[in-house]
Amino acid sequence: MEKDKDCTALFDPDYYTLSVTKTGAGNGIITSAPAGINCQPYCIKTYPRGGQAKNVTLKANPDASSSFLGWGDACQARGTKQTCTIKMNADKNVTAHFGQPDISVSPDSYEFGNVAVKQSSMPAMFIIHNNGTGNLKITKIRVIGTDAKMFRIKSRGKIIVPGGEYQFTATFKPTSAGNKSAIVQISSNDPDAPAMEVPLTGTGNIL
C-alpha cells in the first residue's frame, strides 16, 4: 500500500433466471411445473444454483379462439408440442408463439334468381377462407330465417389451417311463389366474427 488503490470484487449470482415471453396475435398463457411461471405476455423466475439442476416443464395453454404455433429459443426443438422440459443449469430464455384465426367467406351473399316451385336450383359454391395465423374451427353451418326450409346446405364441421379454405354448397328449392330469403350462419372460433352471416335470396315461380 505505497499509494491509493481501487479494488473491485465480482460475485456470481446464486441463482439462474428463466425468462418466458408470449408472442403472436393469439391469446394464451404459459404455466410451469413446479409452479411459478404464469405468463401473459412476459414473466421471469429464478432457480437456485448448486446441487442438482432443477427440471422445469412449461406448458402452452391457448384460449378457445387461438392456436399454439410453437416454441422458440431454449424450447425450439420441441416444435409445436405443447410442453417443454428444460434443465435450469444456466440462464435461459423461452418464447411461445400463439396464432389467431381470421374468417372470410366468398361470395358474401348469393341470389339464386327465379326457380320453379318445388324444383331445386343448381348448387351454389361458397368458400370459407382462413386469413389468420391460427387454426379456424368451424363448429356449425346452418340456415336460419323465415324461409330457411327452402334453402339447403351441404357441409360439416371443419378445422381450417392458416391460409387454407373449405368449400360447401347451398341450393334453393321454393315451396311457394314469391321472393324468399334466408341466412347461412357460420359459427367458428374467430373472436371477431363468431357467427358470420351470408344472406341468401331467390324467387319461387309457378310454371
Compact overview of the structure:
The protein has strands at residues 15-23, 28-33, 38-39, 42-48, 54-62, 67-73, 83-88, 92-99, 103-106, 110-116, 124-130, 136-144, 151-154, 158-160, 165-172, 178-188, 195-205.
Could you characterize the architecture of this molecule?
The chain has no helices and 17 strands. With 207 residues, the protein is mainly beta. Helices cover 0% and strands 57% of the residues. The model has no long low-confidence stretch (mean pLDDT 93). It has 2 domains: 15-99, Ubiquitin-like (UB roll) (Roll); 103-205, Immunoglobulins (Immunoglobulin-like), CATH 2.60.40.10. The strands form 4 sheets. The protein has a 5-stranded mixed β-sheet, with no helix packed on it. The protein has a 4-stranded mixed β-sheet with strand order 4-1-8-6, with no helix packed on it. It has a 4-stranded antiparallel β-sheet with strand order 3-2-5-7, with no helix packed on it. A hairpin with a 6-residue loop joins β16 (178-188) and β17 (195-205).
Layout of helices and strands, plus pairs?
Layout: E1 15-23, E2 28-33, E3 38-39, E4 42-48, E5 54-62, E6 67-73, E7 83-88, E8 92-99, E9 103-106, E10 110-116, E11 124-130, E12 136-144, E13 151-154, E14 158-160, E15 165-172, E16 178-188, E17 195-205
Parallel strand pairs: 1-8, 10-17
Antiparallel strand pairs: 1-4, 2-3, 2-5, 5-7, 6-8, 9-11, 11-15, 12-14, 12-16, 13-15, 16-17
Q: Look at the structure and name the CATH superfamily of the largest domain.
A: Immunoglobulins
Radius of gyration from the alpha-carbon trace, in angstroms:
28 Å
Strand order of the largest sheet: 10-17-16-12-14
Q: Sketch the topology as an H/E string, one letter per element.
A: EEEEEEEEEEEEEEEEE
Fold-level CATH name of the largest domain: Immunoglobulin-like
What assembly state would you assign to the polypeptide chains in this entry?
A: single chain
* Helical amount: under 10%
Q: Hey, roughly how much beta strand do the residues contain?
A: over 45%
| N-C termini distance | 117 Å
- Largest beta-sheet characterization: 5 strands, mixed
Return residue spans where pLDDT drops below 50 for at least 5 consecutive residues. none
DSSP helical segment count: 0
CATH architecture of the largest domain: Sandwich
Overall body shape: rod-shaped
CATH class of the largest domain: Mainly Beta
- The total domain count is 2
Number of strands: 17
Mean pLDDT: 93
Q: What class, by secondary structure content?
A: mainly beta
